[in-house]
Amino acid sequence: MSEEIKKEAAEATQAGPSEKSTRRGRVIWRLVVVLCLLLIAGSVAMRLMKPEEAIETSPLSTVSVGSPTRNDIEIETSLVGTIMPDNVYYVMPKVAGEIKEIYVSQGDHVNEGDPICLIDNDAQVDSAKITLDSAKVQVDTAALAEETARTNYERMNALFATGDISAQSFESAKTGYEQAKDQLSAAQLQVEAAQLNYDLQVEFSTVTAPVSGVVESTNMSVNAMAAQSSQVCIISALGSHKVQFSVTDRLLSGIAVGDPIRIEKQGSQYEGAITMVEQMPDQATGLYSVEASIDDDNELTTGAGVKVYFVSESSMDALTIPTDAVYYDGGLTYAYILSYDGESASGALEEGVLISEENSLGTVHKAEIETGLSDGENTEVLSGISEDDVIITSWTAQLYEGARVQVLPDEEAES
Fold first, then answer.
1. In the chain, N or C terminus with fewer CB closer than 10 Å?
2. Which numeric CATH code is attached to 92-218?
3. 0.70 cut: is pTM over it?
4. pLDDT digit string (tens) for 237-287?
5. CB 409 within 8 A of CB 361
């Protein structure tokens, strides 16, 4: 081709002016075409000689999965309570009088029958003694009359047997004897009553402990007057305590008599049960008073503060998922569930992603859920998912609707 171009160039030199112009243009055009062909050929050659670039791939995110489970969720609430005596006895004198001696003070341990104080009730004792002596005199008189009537009856009975007296006389003697015996029995009963009253008046002069326990408080002083049935001290029975605490109206609906409680004091724990729930709030605090019994409370002292634990809310056999699998977005609550795309696979996938050998490929779906109680580890799900759903329990940046992820074989089997 170059020889032809040279030949045409020489002919163009020998030709006339017009012919020279035409032939020159034809030569230039052919040169341009040749250059273009050379450029194209060079480009193709470079492409053929350049090594093929590898396709960049990246592995899919791996997630952990699980299934919703049925669990019992209980919410435990902790409050401060106060140890109180379970059985409290208010000691009151049974007679009025001046307090002469006091034998106990606050905090003392007493046994049943121990003296508390001595009350001067000499007037009542003297009056009872006079009544007793009078009753005894009446017994003596009645006894003498009964003896006389008995002697007369025995004599009249002998005469009646021999026919020396009439039946009417005999019956009169018999009736007199029966009446004398009745009067003696009545007089003896009066003596017994007077003796009992006297003994009681003597006994009442010394106020004693009705039970073994601790003197919680006293309200007496020497030479002060003690009215009958007025409180002189309070005794709490030994080995029996209760705990008192207060709850709000929100917690009130979640507790009932018989519910178990747990008490903690200085590292020691005690069990108990609720025995009373007040349904009317305290006017000063607006709280509701609750009392509970305590087991094994020998180390607890009256007035001590303790921590009280009880179940305030519960949901039995609830559908739950791990709390870490619950997400929040825009005021709504979500969980991510997985749908499997098919059988286990490995190797490169479209769009330049990889899935490890034996792993399963799945697609992420964002499910809006309604939650209930949560104990920190598990959260109750009221709606939005079912027991058949596969829940994604681990976090990854690829958690969004439609994202593809891979699941380990054991995770798939578990779910």
1. N
2. 1.10.287
3. no
4. 876 788 999 999 889 888 899 999 999 988 888 899 999 999 999 999 999
5. no
What CATH superfamily is the domain 236-317? Efflux pump adaptor protein, beta barrel domain (2.40.30.170)
Q: So where are the chain's domains? A: 2-49, 62-71+318-414, 92-218, 236-317
- Tell the residue number behind the tokens 């003197």, with chain if given: 215
Write out pLDDT tens, residues 366-396. Answer: 999 999 999 889 999 999 999 999 999 998 8
62-71+318-414 and 92-218 have identical folds: no
What is the rounded distance in angstroms from the CA atom of residue 39 to the CA atom of residue 280? 101
**62-71+318-414 — its CATH code?**
2.40.420.20
Angle, vertex CA 272, rays to CA 267 and CA 276, nearest 5: 130
